[in-house]
Each structure stands twice: as structure tokens, then as C-alpha cells.
Amino acid sequence: MARAAWPGRRARLAAGGAMLLAGVAVFADLVFPPDLSRLEDSTRLVLASDGRLLRGFTTDSGVWRLPADPGAVAPVYMKMLLAWEDQRFHSHPGVDPLAIGRAFGQLLDHGRIVSGASTITMQTARLLEPKERTFGAKLHQMWRAIQLERRFGKDEILTQYLTLAPYGGNLEGIRAASLAWFGKEPRHLAPSEAALLVALPQSPETLRPDRYPDRARAARNKVLAVMEERGVLTAGEVAEARLDPIPSRRRPMPFGAPHLAWRMTASNPDARIVHSTIDGELQRALEHMALAEQESLDSGAGLAVMVVENETRRVLAYLGSSDFFDDSRYGQIDMIRAVRSPGSTLKPFIYGMAFDDLMIHPETIIADMPTRFGNYQPENFLKVYRGEVSVREALQQSLNIPAVTVLENVGPRRLDARLQGVGVSLDYGGEGEPGLPMALGGLGTTLQDLTMLYAGLANGGVVRPLAFTLDDKAGPPVALLGEAAAWYVTRILEAAPPPTDFVDPLATRDHRHIAFKTGTSYGYRDAWAVGYDARYTVGVWVGRPDGTPSPDRFGRATAAPVLFRIFRQLPDSGRPANPIRPEDTIVAANRDLPPGLRRISAGESAPDAITRSLIQPLLVSFPPDGAVVELRAGEGGAYAALPLIADGGRKPLRWLVNGVPVEASPQRRRADWRPDGEGFVQITVIDADGAAARAQVLLK
Questions:
Q1: Hey, which bits of 508-625 come out as E strands?
Q2: From 85, 309, 483, 494, active-site residue
Q3: What would you report as the CA-atom Rg of the chain, rounded to the nearest whole angstrom?
Q4: 129-180 tens-digit pLDDT
Q5: Cα–Cα distance between 503 and 497 in angstroms, integer?
Q6: Report for 122-131, 210-219, 674-683: range of highest mean pLDDT
Q7: How far, rounded to the nearest angstrom, does the alpha carbon of residue 542 sit from its chain's CA centroid?
Q8: What is the CATH T-level fold of the domain 341-516+570-616, as seen in this structure?
């Protein structure tokens, strides 16, 4: 009986032992899980809105370790990787018994290892916990591989391998390797490139193509030959791939929007990946343009640019400097956030508040003459004065005295409260406080805040915080100006004369509807241009970051041309901002306005004789004397109207062509005259003091 019971007892003992071993294995699996810390210590990435890499930051150990998954890699690479490293990857539990048996048999036959038995899962285990290559380490890898297979799916294990595999130097992961060796994302790898990257992890330092090109080529060609044998590639594909060159150097990693990338990682310290709102193509185009633009600037000067999508307030381009690596231009300083004097760029908001208060209208007459406001006596930029002008002209020509006059009526503290109420930071320096110099840049603010304000103008006067990442929630809208005021300001700024390089009175701004304003800070330290159309707002700053003056560099001549060139890089919306006129706007000539809106005055004007001596001499600025003007066809077979533009003198103005009066508003400096044919004509303009200016031009 005892002997008969022994086999059953032995079976029970064996089963019990198996259960005990299984229990120990489960316990060990729970108590000693795989160490995934290397995966967690990956490169921090800032991505463009389309998911492409803008900039990455190495790990604390100085390694480029970019996360990657099979879906982001070219299918040809994935096929080649599995065919080369682990043909039964999708069927084994982490350890391949057939491969182990084959390797052991080859060891017995040849006395050495001919082919290894490591699966991709085992290699991943070794990459997670690097150890010296010993028999004990191999057993440890096998155990860890089984653990990984229990915890993760096959694609997740492939993701770990694709993130950690070494490719020479401080490159880890297929994405870092593809960018460094080929300058492209791994989804775009060609067969020859994929073959090299399959071979490199076997011996990443001795096969580096920049140091050992012959070895790298031989290793690549060996992989290609095996791919042909195993049916992954055709003979023709292999022959073609063998002709491709081996990369001779390592390419730099993408370095787009470096100031924003640093800013976003600093404000999101726990995020490994930041999805920015940046349009990668636009960012790259503007970075190249900025490098070209800075060549025409003074030594030590640079520029900064911000582009915003009006509807979403997303930042599409962010250039904190024109060249991040140029120390002579302080390229690593982010001039988008630097506090600088805004010059005249706040004038539209001063006039806008006055429009809201029904204090003025675009056709309200205002004096531009030497004026004292208490103990403050500002001057015009060019120290010439135009006498009586409309508010429209005063804003378009950025005249200083009218702007201070309007601000005196609006109230500097009200302007300060309104701007700070929409999130704009204002710096008055030390014990400074809001005052009339605000109108001319007597405070500090940033390009970011100015761009945000003008994006609000483009959206009917409603300001919202800008969005820098796709996760940023839309901030609460705050009304800075009413719809009518925003409409008035937009129409005025749209008609402002473009910079000299873009002047074509018969084809304004390449047919785009760009409302813009320029500014220059005291001492020519900062040149500004901020503009918008229906879809985009663009802000430009030009100057020296150290605050050194740049003589003869001012907003209209320096920053405005850059602004217009940037708009040429943007799709044309085909329509103006704020296109629909609000019901409460008044469209009328000065004489038709209510009496309270016909004129505004303030301060103490200089005597008339002094004023007249300071007013700019009368001049026909377009068409200039001696010009040849090409006639253009208009409606109904007639010629299109030719604009006649005057500068200087005192209003009212009268126009004559060949002695015949031209119908035009005497309070405007522009008249539209319709030619009746080709030939020479004499254009005359006469001002309120009887002064006359003439221009003789040829029409053809």
C-alpha cells in the first residue's frame, strides 16, 4: 500500500513545489518590478502645433532620449527591425525558446556563440537596467523580459525599445538617431537609412557613420542583404539602397523658437512634452527672415517678432531675438518679454477711449501746434507742426500734440486702469505714476502685451490672454474699447500711409487690409510696428537690447517694413478686421457733426506768429513734381481716380488741376481727381494762409 501511494504522493509534492515556485515568482514579480526610471528620464520636448519637434532639452545626464512609438516610425524600419532582431517577437513570452536552443546548439558545435538569443524584450530589459555581459546578467534579463511581457503589450515594449536603443554618442532612441543622422523624423526613413539604424545599436560606437563610415556602410549593407533573403526588400530595392551615401556628420537637433521653448518648460516643470501653438513652418520662415533682416541693422541691434491668430489668440510665431547664438546682439535675451518704452504705439487706445466717451470723432478738428500742458511741453517727432488737422490725420501721422491733448481729456489714470484691467503690465520706473507722457511712450511695457492689445482691436475691442500651448484655456474676454471705437480706430489705421518701400497709392498694401501703428521710444532706443488684419496680428520690435540709442532708426523706417514683409508670409484673409460698421458709429464730414464733436482743444497754445513759423511748408507729396504717372482703367471705360496728397501748410486746402478747381473736402489733405486723358498736367494746392505748392507731372 505504501509503495502504491508513493507515485501519487510524488505527484502531489511536485505540484506543490510548482505552486510554491509560481507563488515565489509572483511574489518576486510584485516585490521586485522592472525599473522604468530611464524611460521617465526622457528628453523634454516642445512641439509645434502639428506635433513636429521645435526644440528638445537633453536629460540631466546629457543624453538625447526622445520618446517614440511604432506608429511614428516608417513601416519599412519596423519590418526590418523585427526581421533582423526578433522574427518571433509577436509570439514569444519575452524569451524565445527556439532561439535559445539554436544558440546553445551552435555553441556546442563551434565552441563559441555564433548568433545570440536575445529577443527585443530582453534587449529592452537590458536597456532599462544596464549591466555587464555575464551569464548571471543574461538570466536577469530573461526574468525581466518575462516581467515586461506580463505588464505591457507588444507595442508598448516596442515603444520602450525605440526610446532607449543606443545610436552612438549621446543619442538614444530611433527619433533622436533619425534627426541627428538624417535630419528627419523616423516616419520618413528610406530603406537605406532604416538599414543603418537597424545595424547601429549592435555596436553604436564602433559603427558611428561620422567616425567609421566604412564600417557603417558594411554593417548597413549586411542588413540589406539579410532583408533581401528574408523577403522584406526586393533585389531592386536593395541595389538602390546600397547606392545611397552614409551620413558624414551628425546634424544639430531642431532648435526652433528657443526663447519660447525655454519659457514653456520653465512654466511647466513636470511636463515631459509641451504642445505649443507655434506654426512650425511659419516659425522657420520668420527665423530665416530675421537673420537676413538683422544684416541691415546697426551693430549690436536685433529684432523680435510675435504673430497671433486673432480668433483663437494662439501665438503662431515667437522670435525673442533675431539670432539666439549672437552674443554681440544679446541674442539669448527674450525681447518679447523685455520691458521697453512703447513710443507712440498706445495712441490708438487713447483715441479709442475718447471715441467711446463721445469726446471726439475721426473728423473732429484738433490743433497740432506748440502747446504747454501745465509744466509739460511735448514736441512733435520731427519738430514741425501742421496746424489744424482732423483726429483721423493726427492718428495716421502719429502727431504728438493732438495725442497728448486727447489724453489730457481722457485722463492718464483712466488709461492706466483700463490697460491694467485687461492684463497689461505697465512700468513707470521707481516712484513714477501715470501722466501725460504716457501718450509718447513715457512708461514701460512689452511686445507681448502690445500684440495682445492690438489683437483685441482686431476683435472689436475685446482683449483676451494669449495662448502659448494647446492646453491653455481661453482666458475671459475683457472689453478694452467698444465696437464703435474699435471700428473707428481700425478704419483710421488701415488708411495710414505704408512704409516707403511699400508705397503705391494706386495699389495699397498689396491689396491687403492691414491696420498698423508704429512707434519710436525716446533717444531712438526702440522701434516698433504692430499691425493686424482680419486673421492675424503681428508685433515687431527693433533695437539694441542693452538700450543703446540707434540714431535714425525709428518705427516707420525700421520696424514697419519688417511688419509688412511678415504679412507677405501669411495667408491673405481677403477682408479687413472689424468689417461691419456698428450702428452707433457716425459717418459724416466735420461740418455735419454735432457741435460738441467738431473741435477739441486743451493746454496753452503758442502765439499765432510762432505757430505759423513752425508749421511745415506746404508741399504736393503725391504725385511729386516731375513724376511720370501711369493711368489705370476704372469703371465704365473711364480712368481711375488719381490721389492728390499734400503735406504741411494750414487747412483749409484748395486743389486745382490746370487751373480748374477739384471737388474735395478742404479739411482733408487728400483729393481724388479723375484724369480725362494723357499729357502734362499742373497740380496746385493752396492753404489757409494763401501759400501755394505746385507739381507738374506727365500722365501716360
A1: 515-520, 526-532, 536-543, 599-600, 604-605, 619-622
A2: 85
A3: 36
A4: 987 777 677 788 888 899 999 999 999 999 999 999 999 999 999 999 999 9
A5: 7
A6: 210-219
A7: 16
A8: Beta-lactamase (3.40.710)
**Cα-Cα end-to-end distance for the chain:** 129
Cell of 305: 517678432
In DSSP notation, 19-34 reads HHHHHHHHHHHHHS--
Helices 191-199 and 213-229 pack at an angle, to 10 degrees, of: 110
pLDDT 10s digits, 487-513: 999 999 999 988 866 544 434 445 689
Is residue 178 flagged as an active site residue? no
Least confident of 131-140, 464-473, 593-602: 131-140
**β-strands 365-368, 171-172: how paired?**
unpaired
Dist CA 536 CA 313 (whole Å)? 9
Checking if the pLDDT of 291 tops 90, the result is yes
Q: How far apart are CA 652 and CA 596, in angstroms?
A: 20
- Cell numbers representing residue 677 in the block: 486723358
Residue type, 221: N
pLDDT of 205 over the 70 cut:
yes
On whether the 617-699 domain is CATH 1.20.120.140, my answer is no
DSSP code string of 47-80: E-TTS-EEEEE--TTS-EE----GGGS-HHHHHH
Residue 556 DSSP one-character state: I
CA distances from 397 to 177, 382, 495, 515 (A): 55, 11, 11, 13
Catalytic residue among 118, 178, 276, 344: 344
**CA geometry: angle at 85 spanning 82 and 89, to 5°?**
55
Residue 85 CB: number of other CB atoms within 10 A? Answer: 18
Question: Phi and psi of 359, rounded to 5°?
Answer: -85, -35
Q: Is the pLDDT of residue 25 over 60?
A: no
Cell numbers at 553, concatenated:
532708426
Domain made up of 63-243: CATH architecture: Orthogonal Bundle (1.10)
d(C-alpha 186, C-alpha 176), whole Å: 9
| pLDDT over 70, % of the chain | 89
344 belongs to the catalytic site: yes
pLDDT digits (tens, 9 = 90+) for 102-131: 655 554 554 544 455 689 999 999 999 987
646-655 confidence digits (pLDDT tens): 888 888 889 9
